[in-house]
Structures are given as structure tokens and as C-alpha cells.
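Worked example 2:
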Amino acid sequence: MVRLLYVFVLFVLMGCASWPPLLQEKIFPPSAPHIIVDDFSLLDQDGNFHQLSYYSDQKAIVLITQGNGCPIIRHQIGYLNQLKEQYEPLGVVFLMLNANPQDDRQAIVKEAQEYGIQIPILKDDAQIVASQLSLTRTAEAIVIDPRNGSIVYRGAITDRMDYESQKNTDEHHYLRDQLDAILANKPVLLAQTPVKGCLIQIGDKDTARSPNYVQDVAPILIEKCLLCHSPGAGAPWSMENYIKVRGWGPMIGEVVRTKRMPPWHADPQYGSFNDDLSLSPHQVHTLVRWVEQGMARGEGEDPLLKAPRPSKEFWPSGKPDLVYSIPVQDIPATGVLPYRIIEMTQPLQEDVWVKAVDLRPENKQVVHHANVTASLPNQLTQENFPSRTGLQVEGVGQVIASYAPGYRPFVLPPDTGLFIPKGSRLTFWIHYVTTGKPEKDAVLLGLYLHRTPPPKPYIVDQISNKNFRIPPGDKHYKVRGEYRFAKDALLYILVPHMHYRGRSMRFTAKYPNGKTEILLSVPNYKFPWQRRYIFQEPKKIPAGTTMMAEGIYDNSAQNPLNPNPSQEVTFGQQSDDEMFSGFLGYTWEERR
């Protein structure tokens, strides 16, 4: 009889307007199967990257729904900060989630500062997490088991807050009690409780038509994906038609939700760059929703059948003036391969001014990334050479060409050129990956030349730091470096470079007047993607500006790329070592 009464009470509570629709069908006791939260990745208000599965080494994840201006969540900030301080050392991660379409990141930053919010606020601008969890209100606490993503509790934080009123004290500490039970390895006391909070506007999903492939999905794929997902373009599969895309649909949903694809890692809050492959919040929502709702085709001809594809010409910009190649390389079927460093036996036979470069593998499936460096001839020294040519040299030589999947030929800005003197030696640095079967490859470098020296030398320089020792297991090791501009400059390109343990890098300009500006932030740096970021409009840099690069390394077991979390890591050339380099491409504003 008591059990029947308990079930009846819960049934009545389910009728409350504040109850999440996802859970109205069934109230599960702690022993019943729980809802699984799909892995997701989001940025917080400060531009830091968070992935749910990254916290699998913790004992619990607490996700609190937040919205600017909501008095119910505002009144509980102090209490939540106390919980965070008390429970995080015990293995509990606290995160907030803002899915309000009216709250942008700047507004969330202001709210966090004004109300002293000490918990990262993840911005769900595409509302993919909010939709999956059927969130309806702020001030809801969701406790997730990090081992498998299951929800073990969702509901109120305490019982103190109500609409337009609040109690003097908390009679029930729902969230705290669940955490105490989890940490004591005991069953949670309640699976759910009713929530009092401000309503969240979750798009117009109940009235809008469901997305379909022909009208909604294919245009996104054509714009953002076909550069790599075309025959011979480097991706492991080609987006040829609806049938092929539908077969890969669940995987598309997963990689979009976790931000593994498309391979663009710059924070959209800072800067505008060419060849931006990132998805807008609307595009993310469309793709994920299409997968979740059954991947409907829609009426009409398949847009992918006539979509423009990357050129099949080996040299899409035309035949280069100079071509350098390496001998054919044999790639084994499996294994982790070290860098292959191949120096050209013959130095350059003449001075050249380069206006464009194109570094091309013959087999794109096996090339993770590649660089070509130029080392100065012995009779030229770094002290008297760079100032008049722009070619900077440190250690291994200066990078003059790069390749990574999705790269296009790099054309230097008009009226500029990269000078490489006679006698310089070129070296190919190639990171190969295996495919499961033996492969062959040869990489070719094409140089397109000016006939006469251009007005400005194009300068390639780097911010570098080799003096670091990353302790074993360290999740958040910081390294920084800086470079000072001696003269007025135009900055065209920024390229972060780290190895397997690199987690993020940020470039900040500190101007002579004392002001600072973040020019590029890469909060989710991925070694498999050696992205370069070319400004849509060159950035004017006044003389005396200091460019600061700040990087974070993750040498823990939570980093899936880490080859050895128990090893101290220092500077080195191989991928198992580490580098800290921020490459700059610029010109002086004055002409030669």
C-alpha cells in the first residue's frame, strides 16, 4: 500500500508544468535503467573547451541549467559555489548550461561577473543538448554518472526557491544528498524531483517542419564537407549521394555533436578567417536533428550528384615554376610512425622570390601533415639576413610550405614575396599515418615565382619556447612565449603548433597604448589537424606591439592522444616530444 501511494504521488508530480517532458512517460527508481546523455562538446563563456566524456575519471558530473536574468537561479549561485568548493576536490565536476537563444557569450560573461558565478557556463547555442534532455526550465540539476553517461538524478537543487517567494532555509538539500550518496557508494535517494525555474525557449521544434536531406542537409555538406569528402581528397569516405550519406548519418551526428567535425578549431568569438569550415549553430542543429529524426530524403534531385568537387588536377593552380619531390615512400599497414625527415641533396641553384606555394602528397590518405623548411646557406648568418629578406631561421630551418587535409595552395598577399637565397637547402618533414594496408606516397613541392622582386618581403616568423618540462599526469600545464614587432606591420596569418599533448593556444596582441586584443583562440587544439588561420582582412599591428602566445598541455590519461601519461615531456622534434610554436606571417607596412 505504501509503495502504491509513493507511485501515485510521483504520478501527480509529473503533471506539474515545470516537469521535463522527456521524463513524463516514466519515473524510474534508482535501480532502473537510466537515460544516457550523448557525448557532447561546448565552449564556456570564457572560450574554454569542455567535452562530457573528458570527465570520465571523475565520480559525478553536475549540470545546472542557467539563464541570464532568472531570479531563481541567481538566488542559488552562492549555494552552488559552496557545493563546487566542497565537492570538486572529492571528484565532482560542476558545469552550467545556458541554452537561452537571447543570451550571447558577452552577456553571459557579464552575468557571471556580476553575480559571482564560479562555475563554467557552457553555451548551448545550437540547443542540441537542451533538445536531447528536453530541458524546459533553468535551475534544474542533472547528475550524470561519468562512467557511462547515465542520469542518476535530475530535479531541484533544494526546496528553498519558489515562484516570487523563497523560504528562509532549505528543508531539503536534494542535490547535496544525491552527491553524498554517490560518494558513499550508496543508491541515490531520489531519481527526480520537481523543478521551479524560468522557462527556456527551445527554438520552434514543435511547429517547424523536420529537416530533410535535399533541402536542408545537402547544402551544408556541399559548403563545408566536400572539400575533403570527395574521391581522392583525403577523407576516408566520400559523400557521393543520399544513400552514402544516410549510411554514415549516425556518425555525422556524433562527430558534429562532439565538434570532431568539421576540422575547424578557432573560437568564433575572435577574428574572421578565410576557408572557415565551422558550422553555424543553425547548421549544427539542422544536422543533429536530421539524424535524430530519421534522416528523411525529401523531394527532388540529389544535390550531391551535381555538386562542384575539388579539382582532380594535381596542380589546380597550374604548373609551378619549380617542383621538388622526395623519393617514393613505403608506408606499412599498421603502427605509429615517426617523422620522416628528407633533405634535398641539391641546394637551390638561384635566388627566388616566391609568390605562392603548393605542397601535395600523391596519396592523401597517408599524410597526416607535412612541412618544408629552408635552411640558409652557410655564408649567410641569421644576424644580417632576416631583416632584409623576411626569412627567419631557428633550429630546423624556416617553414616555407605546409600541408594538412583540406589545405588549398597558399597564395601570398599581392605585392609580397618570400625570398629564398641561392644555396638554401630544402627539407621535407612528413608525418605519415597507417591505413590498415601497405601504401606508397611521394610528396611534391611546387613554387610559383615572381619574375622581378616584389615591393615587400613576406616575413615568416615564430613565437617559440623550448624551456618547458611537462610533469607526468599534468592536465593543465601552461607555456607562453612572445614576439615584439619593431615596425608597423600587416599580419596575415597565425598558425599554432604543438604535438600530441597540446590542448589549446591563444594569440593576444598587447598594443603600445596598453590595450590587449585576442586575435585567435584555439580552445580545442588537435594535433591531427594542423590548421592555419588566414585573416580575411590583414590586421594592422603598430610598432612596439607584443604578440603573446599562450598554450596549455594535457599530459594526463584523459588525453586520448597522449602516448605516455607517465612520462615527463620536454622539447623535441618527434611527435612523442613536444613543441611550442606560434607561426606569424606578416609584412612591414613600409616598402623596400
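DSSP finds eleven helices and 29 strands in the chain. Confidence is low (pLDDT under 50) at residues 1-33, 382-396.
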